[in-house]
Amino acid sequence: MKAKLILLFLFAGTIAWSQVTIKGQVKDASNETLPGVSISVTGTSIGTITDIDGSYEISVPADAKELQFSFIGYEPILN
């Protein structure tokens, strides 16, 4: 069975040029931060990865519906 990710989001209210900045931190089920998690906007080429502390910031189109998180050894999830 693959482990699942726990995701923490902070939706920043910054809207510029029809984009929204999303900040968050990715942790596993034991509350450990995960560096190197890939995060992408579903259906686009927009993406980023988490830093050493599992934190990320990504600017997405205001009409974006889903983010996809993936990490080797974990099940990908949509949020």
Give the helices and strands, then pairings.
Elements: E1 5-16, E2 19-28, E3 38-41, E4 47-49, E5 55-61, E6 67-70, E7 77-78
Antiparallel strand pairs: 1-2, 2-5, 3-4, 3-6, 6-7
Features:
globular; 79 residues; three-stranded antiparallel β-sheet; 7 strands; mainly beta; four-stranded antiparallel β-sheet; single chain
Report on this model:
It is a single chain. With 79 residues, this protein is mainly β. The protein is built from no helices and 7 strands. It has a 4-stranded antiparallel sheet, with no helix packed on it. Strands 1-2-5 form a 3-stranded antiparallel sheet, with no helix packed on it. The radius of gyration is 12 Å and the shape is globular. The two termini are 21 Å apart.
Radius of gyration: 12 Å
Number of strands: 7
Beta-strand portion reads: over 45%
**Number of discrete helical segments:** 0
Give the helix proportion (percent range): under 10%
Element order: H for helix, E for strand: EEEEEEE
Instruction: Give the CA-based shape.
Output: globular
Poorly predicted runs are 12-16
Structural class: mainly beta
Strand order of the largest sheet: 4-3-6-7
Largest sheet: 4 strands, antiparallel
Give the integer mean of the pLDDT values. 82
For the termini, the CA-CA separation is 21 Å
Short description:
The protein is mainly beta and 79 residues long.
